[in-house]
Amino acid sequence: xxxxxxxxxxxxxxxxxxxxxxxxxxxxxxxxxxxxxxxxxxxxxxxxxxxxxxxxxxxxxxxxxxxxxxxxxxxxxxxxxxxxxxxxxxxxxxxxxxxxxxxxxxxxxxxxxxxxxxxxxxxxxxxxxxxxxxxxxxxxxxxxxxxxxxxxxxxxxxxxxxxxxxxxxxxxxxxxxxxxxxxxxxxxxxxxxxxxxxxxxxxxxxxxxxxxxxxxxxxxxxxxxxxxxxxxxxxxxxxxxxxxxxxxxxxxxxxxxxxxxxxxxxxxxxxxxxxxxxxxxxxxxxxxxxxxxxxxxxxxxxxxxxxxxxxxxxxxxxxxxxxxxxxxxxxxxxxxxxxxxxxxxxxxxxxxxxxxxxxxxxxxxxxxxxxxxxxxxxxxxxxxxxxxxxxxxxxxxxxxxxxxxxxxxxxxxxxxxxxxxxxxxxxxxxxxxxxxxxxxxxxxxxxxxxxxxxxxxxxxxxxxxxxxxxxxxxxxxxxxxxxxxxxxxxxxxxxxxxxxxxxxxxxxxxxxxxxxxxxxxxxxxxxxxxxxxxxxxxx
Length: 539
Hints:
The protein contains 20 helices and 20 strands. The chain is α+β, with helices and mostly antiparallel strands.
């Protein structure tokens, strides 16, 4: 104590746990701000969600840990939760910061201000290690600015709250410089989203340390692998796959959804002619059925224990000899899943707006049909999570860094199970680089990207080289993307329509452009991807 001022010279388990909880709680309030800083105004801007879910997974591992535990033990558990739950590039980098802090606190019951400062420096070092080619103007630039700006403070200060304050100041200075370091940020008039997230993390730690932590009322289950039964993913907490029809039904489907939403997950409620069909993974199926009986007469009731089914599937898998080498791919949409499965790939659900965690990738590999995998992430924001998995499992995993499902599909077609891993990696990478890709989505806000002015609700065409088209009319957008993709040697255009574009309307779009390009073959497939009505590849 110094007068009435509390000095945070020694950090024990209780202080450190509060710091991490403070970080998670602040993110709960601020993650939308981070989402809004995503450069492209596309509907899958999810940096804030990814960092929040990473911290949520961290919190799940420390929530029930006694604050009397040594600071090193709490840090170790926090690190395990963050790593397994890490989503997206910023989430993986944040998990590495937490992992580095854990390494710095290893074996310690309490930590002095100097030891805690050094642990946070370790965190920044580990974050750098996670990225092969660091880019200026990103979360790593902010991390480096923090390390540099607080170097002298670390050496002389004995109050850790002052260290955190200095770190936040240095981070905000570094964050303000990111638009000057990265042109794409300058064009969009935003600072780096991940860098802002890192500052929120430090602010939350300071809040937790100084007692600005709310009563913990967040119901978060410990990190648990989602299991797979009957082709459905489910949580151990909700093991009963419950299905039934209510006919006649006295209430609308909307009300059924509202009433049942707190009683399970993976809920699908479909409305027909005076009937409602329900699918839900429930903890207490009897309670769900009792509620439903008040709304009408129940028919075709089915209730399966998916844990039993999972173990039966597991036994079958164990009896089946795994094949030596295959592909694990990440896609979203029934059409894409079917296309990849036809090629013999194992599929993890995810992509735009739903980046799978490291744990989900690991579960996909462990439950799959192959001993070793080549992973096709199919999204820039999933590559780091795949690399994190490789660090954990070593030579069981190799990565071909596909950035969209079209690149991944081209790579998968070049795969040959008879070839070595090295031969496949070379062939798949080469094939992936031969195609040109474009995507069409809807702008979620006004923005400026390069010289292109984007208006909210415009159709946006995006290509790999960050060429952007923004127009109010879908067909106009489609033709402009084709103009970018098509060259004199282009022979085939393949279009994959998403959830928001019908097969009929997609065919109409192709009919209009085929006359413009008589020498090019146009093909169409159902992708079923969310948020993007159309994916386009040219080869």
